[in-house]
Specification:
By secondary structure, this protein is of the alpha+beta class. The chain folds into three domains: 5-72, Orthogonal Bundle (Arc Repressor Mutant, subunit A); 80-129 and 202-233, Alpha-Beta Plaits; 131-201, 2-Layer Sandwich (Alpha-Beta Plaits), CATH 3.30.70.980. It contains eight helices and eight strands. It has helices spanning 5-15, 19-35, 45-56, 61-72, 103-116, 144-153, 177-186, 209-223; strands at residues 80-87, 93-100, 120-122, 131-140, 160-164, 167-172, 194-201, 228-233. Strand 5 (160-164) and strand 6 (167-172) form a beta hairpin.
Amino acid sequence: MGRKWNNIKEKKAAKDKNTSRIYAKFGRELYVAAKQGEPDPELNVALKVVVERAKTYNVPRHIIDRAIEKAKGGAEENYDELRYEGFGPNGSMLIVDTLTNNVNRTAAEVRSAFKKNGGNMGVNGSVDYMFDATAVIGVEGKSEEEVLEILLEADVDARDIVQEDDAVIVYAEPDQFHEVQQAFRNAGISEFSVAELTMLAQNDITLTEDAQEQFEKLVDALEDLEDVQQVYHNVDFGD
């Protein structure tokens, strides 16, 4: 698979010099997850996943707690979870997940971002069948063999285990997200370099330099939108 998860995250962090944008996106996602179930990560699986993701992006604890407390306080902000699909240059494909309190605004902004950056929107189902929902958990300080042994002892299956730079990345079924983490915790590992529920392309593509530059502008434009939470794609940016 080799998606270079740590490098991807570092590039995002470098681009997002204004970390308030990252915090705002996580704050919204945490609030929605807490409102849809118990406002307690130990009782709400969806919320726990977001909390774990937020930690890997170094979101401060007070930001996490504030969003959860807001949900506990009975705030009535309503958000719709919407997914858009589309195409970029040279066979590139994108999935755009959003949380919005104004569906018409979000649809117009996403469509405009595609149009202005060499892409075009697709209909529902035009892209996501080429992606697989996947749990991705990364740890440092262990070898692939050691990670495999930890998972075997916990009787947890994984799709793949890959050394990527300084981390070992475990790819598993989405419903095994917490099982994989718990296996690591039982082995004394509590810090994760990656903890994501994501959409992985079944096949990555490599673009020419010009096409990749255009594609990166498209991804940046989408990620800059306030309502966009995640952008998944099938392009291998390399190292």
